[in-house]
Amino acid sequence: MAQCAYCKTETELYKGGTPICIHCADLSPEGRGVRARLFHDLAEARLGAESATMEFNAVTRDIPSSIPQPDGAQRIYNASRSLDAARKKMMTAHTRLNEFLERGIVPEDLKGSGAQ
């Protein structure tokens, strides 16, 4: 099965020889660009959250370590803050995509740009 040229979801639909999913076929070229950008942002945020989770797990797995107590606690705190920020970024990306898909709301930073 082919991937949509815009959002990379699997599709069997072709338009002018180009694979395109039903959702992207119904959108204007600008809408397709916004949708693709939002999917890309979500994928990046998800990778960041996975990376932060692995870092946090590595730090907590290292307990007890030979690192002096205050530094060890600070490492856990830093990893926790990083994980929290990455998860918040991922939730923001989810919210932006959902608002666009469900209500057609284009985020302010993508308006008029075509998101290309």
Describe this structure in words.
The protein contains three helices and four strands. By secondary structure, the chain is mainly alpha-helical. The strands form two sheets. The protein has a two-stranded antiparallel sheet. Strands 3-4 form a two-stranded antiparallel ribbon. A hairpin with a 6-residue loop joins strand 1 (2-3) and strand 2 (10-11). It is elongated. The two termini are 25 Å apart.
Features:
116 residues, two-stranded antiparallel sheet, 3 helices
How many structural domains can be distinguished in the coordinates?
1
Q: In what range is the share of β-strand residues?
A: 5-15%
The strand count comes to 4
Estimated structural class? mainly alpha
Largest sheet: number of strands, sense, barrel closure: 2 strands, antiparallel
Helix-strand string: EEEEHHH
Given as residue ranges, the uncertain stretches (5+ residues, pLDDT < 50) are none
Question: Helix and strand layout, with pairings?
Answer:
Elements: E1 2-3, E2 10-11, E3 14-15, E4 18-19, H1 22-25, H2 29-61, H3 69-103
Antiparallel strand pairs: 1-2, 3-4
Helix pairs in contact: 2-3
Explain briefly what this protein structure is.
With 116 residues, the protein is mainly α. It has 3 helices and 4 strands.
